[in-house]
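User: My advisor asked me to double-check a structure prediction for Methyltransferase domain protein before group meeting. I don't want to rely on an old file, so could you generate it fresh from this sequence?
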Amino acid sequence: MKIPFTKYAIKGYNARLEQQFDECRVASEAMQRRSHARFHIINALLQNTQQKRYLEIGVRNLEDNFNRINADFKVCVDPGYEAAINHATFPMTSDEFFDQLHNDQLDIEHNRFDVIFLDGLHLADQLYRDIQNALQVVADTGFVVLHDCNPPTLHHARENFREQSPAAGFWNGTCWKAYQRIRTETDKRCFVVDVDWGVGVIVNHDEDPAYRLPATVNPFYEFHVLDANRREILNLVEPMDVSELRENL
Ligand SMILES: C[S@@+](CC[C@H](N)C(=O)[O-])C[C@H]1O[C@@H](n2cnc3c(N)ncnc32)[C@H](O)[C@@H]1O
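Assistant: Sure, here is a fresh prediction for Methyltransferase domain protein from the sequence you gave:
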């Protein structure tokens, strides 16, 4: 008797796919319920700084975050890939911006910042470069903040945004890898607040070898290792209210 293998294989495949879509939908909804917390965190950090100079890399719609930031001086950078009208102060890529900033080619009042929010291209090599550039121009008592550091599923952490995915339009990319790498390379205190897709914070003014993540924890940057060790790899902290956050810095 012939076993209709293909029929059952397809049925099993479809069932697994449906399950993946369901898992992603539940994960996305859970994260969305806790989204838009980034500006609370950024504002709390700015209150801890003296001059309150703010730089945002990747801004898209000003209303979503940039306009909610309370700073004495603030500028933003975006090449305008995702907006009908690009309202960025500097309409260019982060690489172009940092290159011109380092070479004094920009018409800008300040060339150092107290909080820098990196939310441009969500690929590890780009974010890693953005972090390196940001660390050169962040104040000694300042903070570098990263969005999308805690992707809930592998689908949210896919490399290619355009790839058809059970996570649909939700995309955290591979930002977590850049964050993990920084944690293994510097003694700076880093943590990820478990809200809004994972808001990573690099504290520039507190250095201690105890903060460094051993590279052996996830040497091949595998998602399943991250998933099983989120608390340790990300130094994931629970959402806390603004005053608690400030007390913890
Ligand atoms: C997720 S959106 C930013 C959202 C915004 N920061 C917020 O909190 O609402 C990402 C933005 O990064 C921009 N972008 C893409 N590649 C970039 C690059 N190489 N340099 C700077 N920005 C980039 C896109 O145009 C897009 O507007």
